[in-house]
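A favour, since you know our structure tokens better than I do. Would you make up a two-line entry for one protein for me to read? Write everything out right here, beneath this request.
=====
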Amino acid sequence: MRPSNDRWLTAQETAVLLDTTSADVCRLLSLGRLSGSKQKQPGRPGNGHWLIDPKSIAKEKRRTAKRTPHIARRRKPAVNGDASSPEKTLAASKSE
């Protein structure tokens, strides 16, 4: 699903392109990282819907592609044979 450059997308369509939820798209709109306008359909009740500029979608895709995922570091296991907990390590050092 590739949008043409002149067609503005709804929040749901943008969410599919960014692989996120429409709530996240609305959050990005409120932060100013996506630009769009709110359109109300005449004669229909309700709040209307957001139309998002495809150029801002391309910028956000580039911005998220630059981010690297955070890799959690694991703790190394204790070197002392049975000293798996800090209490055992402390007790072993006191006995020596």
Observations:
- The mean pLDDT is 76.
